[in-house]
Amino acid sequence: MSLPILLTVALLLTSSAYASVNDFCVADLQQPDTPSGYPCKKATSLTEKDFVYSGLGVAGNTSNIISAAVTPAFVAQFPAVNGLGISLARLDLAVAGVIPMHTHPGASEVLVVIQGTICAGFISSANTVYFKTLFKGDIMVFPQGLLHFQINSGDDPALAFVSFSSANPGLQILDYALFGNELPTELVTKTTFLDAAVVKKLKSVLGGSG
Amino acid sequence: MSLPILLTVALLLTSSAYASVNDFCVADLQQPDTPSGYPCKKATSLTEKDFVYSGLGVAGNTSNIISAAVTPAFVAQFPAVNGLGISLARLDLAVAGVIPMHTHPGASEVLVVIQGTICAGFISSANTVYFKTLFKGDIMVFPQGLLHFQINSGDDPALAFVSFSSANPGLQILDYALFGNELPTELVTKTTFLDAAVVKKLKSVLGGSG
Amino acid sequence: MSLPILLTVALLLTSSAYASVNDFCVADLQQPDTPSGYPCKKATSLTEKDFVYSGLGVAGNTSNIISAAVTPAFVAQFPAVNGLGISLARLDLAVAGVIPMHTHPGASEVLVVIQGTICAGFISSANTVYFKTLFKGDIMVFPQGLLHFQINSGDDPALAFVSFSSANPGLQILDYALFGNELPTELVTKTTFLDAAVVKKLKSVLGGSG
Amino acid sequence: MSLPILLTVALLLTSSAYASVNDFCVADLQQPDTPSGYPCKKATSLTEKDFVYSGLGVAGNTSNIISAAVTPAFVAQFPAVNGLGISLARLDLAVAGVIPMHTHPGASEVLVVIQGTICAGFISSANTVYFKTLFKGDIMVFPQGLLHFQINSGDDPALAFVSFSSANPGLQILDYALFGNELPTELVTKTTFLDAAVVKKLKSVLGGSG
Amino acid sequence: MSLPILLTVALLLTSSAYASVNDFCVADLQQPDTPSGYPCKKATSLTEKDFVYSGLGVAGNTSNIISAAVTPAFVAQFPAVNGLGISLARLDLAVAGVIPMHTHPGASEVLVVIQGTICAGFISSANTVYFKTLFKGDIMVFPQGLLHFQINSGDDPALAFVSFSSANPGLQILDYALFGNELPTELVTKTTFLDAAVVKKLKSVLGGSG
Amino acid sequence: MSLPILLTVALLLTSSAYASVNDFCVADLQQPDTPSGYPCKKATSLTEKDFVYSGLGVAGNTSNIISAAVTPAFVAQFPAVNGLGISLARLDLAVAGVIPMHTHPGASEVLVVIQGTICAGFISSANTVYFKTLFKGDIMVFPQGLLHFQINSGDDPALAFVSFSSANPGLQILDYALFGNELPTELVTKTTFLDAAVVKKLKSVLGGSG
């Protein structure tokens, strides 16, 4: 093949490619977010390292009140998922560990048990409860925005990975939302039917004021 | 204008129109739902009545434990919103009435106060609390999936209309989700830090078992 | 509970929360828009006031040619709806007031009558007309992009709120689009079958040239 | 390669393929539509003919009031585009032919001139007019839901293809919407500022009543 | 609390819940698919078992030409993910196992290594290659629709879970697409620059004809 | 009509219009892209020229290895399609010209034959091949992300326009992806079953290294 033709081919490729560099959009976290995600880093500045994240390879610290840890690989930790509608997190549950009742306002979740035994469940809008004991290899889905929980129901530490249908699923832990901020006790009692004494006790445990 | 030409025009119109009857899709609730909404009723069977709903014209019954009522015009009540990404509801709050802490798993909400004074608020994923007293004509937004509440903070009954960014926003009232179903007390206590006694008391009030 | 554990809890919360601050994206209107909406203001700069808008609490000025006023709470007026797929507007119709034939290119609409009597309608792609007299509390849906109108058909002023399935629904008022700009009369006549005299007269009323 | 291994390969393929047959969803027009499109025909019943349509190969009949014809390849004519967010149409404009002022409620459009000279334009929500004379090979975009038109501005017949960002873009021709149905003259005059005489004349031309 | 009031509460709950049962849509695979997914099973027929799948708990059979197996939990295997924009699969790679060059036409993918060492990579539209050796706990993203591969690059079997941003991501394995069907050899050679002899040899291995 | 009233009308128009200028978002290519597209140019800086593109009016240079040319009008060339979910390209196929096997990772495609005879086809996820000879005026759909090709199967040059369901559909030409970059020969052979000699030969033709 003669050189001139080869050059033409390269040209065709270059010009076509120029129009389509954005089949991904690695987040530039230094710029403000938008409703669809962060602005993209220049494709020419990216290497394979941008598409790999090692932060889920280390167990989270479970020496805390819930004997559990959630280690996220959302867009803030793993900018490559920006705009792709997917992200991951790692759940470590020590013996008796609990991921307390919580929601992800912007995503559905699928959990896969890697190790141990986990009792997991969610409550639907129709107020039906679905919970089940999951063993190694089992997967369970938690539809978007619904209250759900995971409990280590075995005798050994448990490990799971959870996938989300959003690069930024959000996380609203019920107890922190109710008792871990400055929401006035009076508003908590009025909107939850809990007694002021109960609210104040939990506020003191979870760092809330008011 | 001669008749033949007029007929041609009519034909053009008919054939074009045939391809575009579905700028709406009034739900046929007798068929199974899909992820995008219900199958459509035949356009030819529809009249103006299908696009109008009068169910929000009547105050909800507030003689209940929360002195409040939510009257929805979601797709189940108002099939015309099917697939259009919008729906409405009416909030009636008697004096001291409360719409308890709740979420809409699949929609953001905007509230407009028609009458009275309402203290409304929500808690973000970052655990920040935003609440404010709203007066007649004020509007407030509650982003998708976040815990929020509305309280009549005035001396008279209050009325508000709320709009949702979905034809089927869902509604998960926190207390009913925790205490109004068969979720075992042990799971509630483990996932909320509440005492069993507190849980059992609220279960008895809200109709829960287990 | 000992302090060290409490600190761990706070840490868990902080790091999780950091990844999920964007369950909302209040528009920074000083930056250029994107197809999904405006870039977000920093969450830390927001207060409850950012989520509340009082501009719909005041009646629009109906002393005009249509005896009516549309007061929008779109993203440009109420930045908190940015990216949430919802917005509101207030319609004031004096006696005999008319919101003339118009479309919202990017949103469906639901109207709720707060006061008075309104005759409202739309025309479908299949060229069917749906119109009906609406009374207090009635709601009506206008599917995306279709020509529709609202007329005060009662003896008193009317008030309605309209909700849209977009933060930026757009508004194209037919008469202004045809007669209120520099679209040449010749193009208007050719594309509407209206006589030049009719076009010119309306151009003079509505401020058009050409 | 031994047969057993080949069979295993086939099996792998079959089972994987089974989960992914729906990268397309050719419409079964015999079933009711849904908000996302029609139910799919069984993939096993499809042949290459399902993905090809020849209806745009023939010029539309332009012997009509507008000296023009729109031949759609929307989902109703070409079921293969169902759910794919794209469709086509053919525009034939005889000398002096006009596609009158119209909107597509659910899609943006791009036009490419194949033959002849076309003056095309649209009016934005900000009431700015954009129109230009297009020659062979020129393309022009008409954003979703906005009023637009195409006129043969040359001395020969013109041909164009238009693409839409929806399988079912809809088509609302202004004059038919206003004057070609049973919308009462009184409502037309009130909502358009046109005189009753003008309205009645156009109703008689375009087949409207009322 | 008196019984009448309790009943009212129950009623409020029931009617609200009725409008919001569809925060999930477990697929009824007996009905035809739609562009947004399968019609939903009745919520009342569901139990916790519908939301859990155990099929990924068993290693796939890697005694095949690629020494690897893909075990999907797409909507066809796990109907609960229908409409939720997420699904999973399990990758088993024996020593020297390879998931050959392939694409998922409708989804981005994130892989997490559970065991072993995997060399994985993809090629962008700009024709840049990104590949990297992944160790236990590493995650890597493969943007939608791009050619990618995974190879066991260690001395032991490898296990990974992959998540997709769709309930039905599709799977197009390059070699099967080119050589494992009835695509005529002449068309393969013309469109790939491969010699007919190469094509025929691979067709014989992969079961293709023509 | 008196002047004061006219001014009021203008005011109404201005304020309404202000909230709705973004029914389009012409790309400002000088700013970084986002997952939903580029930031918008100021609407006030736009003219009709921004919505028209003439680059497809000229035949592409087919004096190259494939005797064919793809001339895109994607967002990079035609910024007006930004965010509108549509774009175009022109295909020129000299006699015996071939658009080799390729995918568009982010879009479905519809092709319309303007001139000549084209054999076009695609392979589904279920590994079924669909191909057909297309004549002038025929259209064919290629669902998102699937391998497809176009071959001039006539005796004269062929011309086609292709439309995409995205402003930035991407383009991954199989041979360039495999043989036109630095992907190591060893990885290509392992993931495609091709011999190293075949790979190296094609790498030399297509400019690849490694």
UniProtKB/TrEMBL annotation, chains A, B, C, D, E, F:
Its main location: secreted. This is Germin-like protein. It comes from Heracleum sosnowskyi. It comes from the Eukaryota. The keyword Metal-binding applies. One of its GO terms (cellular component) is apoplast. Disulfide bonds join 25-40. InterPro entries: Cupin_1 (IPR006045), Germin (IPR001929), Germin_Mn-BS (IPR019780), RmlC-like_jellyroll (IPR014710), RmlC_Cupin_sf (IPR011051). Residues 1-19 form the signal peptide. Belongs to the germin family. It is found in: Secreted, Extracellular space, Apoplast. Pfam families: Cupin_1. The keyword Disulfide bond applies. Residues 54-200 form the Cupin type-1 domain. Mn(2+) binds at residues 102, 104, 109, 148. One of its GO terms (molecular function) is manganese ion binding. Gene3D superfamilies: Jelly Rolls (2.60.120.10).
